[in-house]
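Researcher: Quick test of sequence recovery. Tokens follow.
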């Protein structure tokens, strides 16, 4: 298998584009694709400060590395919730990029409790609790440190699996919030996903070529997650219909099914406890804190 551009031995074949690339030209393709995605959705520009949420996994590590390589102003944010031990990994990514790394102890908000312990106390799914806490802390740090946008490493496989699940369950509000960029609104900082046009395979190969350190451990709470089942179905479809994932994702945007978030913005108010934006009187994060405190108080009684 030869590279389409130079006839050297290819390191990756991209059936969805009917092409193959050597290391040099795959890097070129990958970085141009990220830049095109950023421009297509007017995500951010090089005068803005970007806070990249990193976990130690390949996606967030690549997101930080490629944005730095493309000339954007970045810092990394690692939120330690006690669910993984990736601190040393994210420090290596910080060294690779030469950029600042912020580390936040997420357990400080819940008296040292882990996500799993909080989940058991409030009787809610662990993934739901983890996501809620991470989103709140990411936004809080970005706002307090004057960042213009929060960047996450969501890839095409992530997005189409979430999209399929939301469509199957007619979760319209979730679909609207799944847009590749969500604009800022007061204390709610802009969020962007510059890797949404790239697959897990492409990101993995890019990480290897550029010798990035990353964890290969799967999240301990992802077992039996519906998104993994949706990914499996979509991977099978991709084998027989190369490019179906990207078409599915792009066509949804053309149909405006992501929708406008103007109505949602108009309904936002300040949380009575922390002051951050919420659709109710108290935000989900503060409600969770109250639930945990109440439950712990009852246990002591």
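Model:
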């Amino acid at each position: 298998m030869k590279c389409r551009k130079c006839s050297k031995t290819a390191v990756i074949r991209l059936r969805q584009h009917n092409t193959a690339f050597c290391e040099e030209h795959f890097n070129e393709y990958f970085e141009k694709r990220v830049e095109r995605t950023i421009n297509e959705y007017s995500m951010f520009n090089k005068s803005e400060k970007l806070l990249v949420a990193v976990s130690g996994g390949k996606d967030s590590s690549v997101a930080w590395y490629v944005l730095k390589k493309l000339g954007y102003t970045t810092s990394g944010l690692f939120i330690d919730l006690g669910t993984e031990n990736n601190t040393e990994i994210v420090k290596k990514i910080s060294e690779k990029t030469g950029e600042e790394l912020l580390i936040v102890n997420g357990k400080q908000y819940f008296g040292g409790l882990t996500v799993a312990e909080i989940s058991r106390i409030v009787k809610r799914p662990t993934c739901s609790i983890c996501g809620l806490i991470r989103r709140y802390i990411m936004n809080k740090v970005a706002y307090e440190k004057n960042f213009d946008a929060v960047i996450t490493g969501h890839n095409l496989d992530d997005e189409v699996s979430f999209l399929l699940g939301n469509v199957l369950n007619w979760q319209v509000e979730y679909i609207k919030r799944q847009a590749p960029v969500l604009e800022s609104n007061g204390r709610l900082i802009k969020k962007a996903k510059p890797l949404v046009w790239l697959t897990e395979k492409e990101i993995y190969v890019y990480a290897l070529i550029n010798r990035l350190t990353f964890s290969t451990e799967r999240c301990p709470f992802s077992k039996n997650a519906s998104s993994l089942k949706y990914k499996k179905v979509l991977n099978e479809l991709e084998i027989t219909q190369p490019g179906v994932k990207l078409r599915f994702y792009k066509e949804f945007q053309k149909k405006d099914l992501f929708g406008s978030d103007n109505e949602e913005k108009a309904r936002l108010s300040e949380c009575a406890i922390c002051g951050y934006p919420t659709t109710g009187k108290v935000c989900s994060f503060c409600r969770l804190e109250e639930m945990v405190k109440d439950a712990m108080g009852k246990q002591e009684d």
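The chain has one domain: 24-300.
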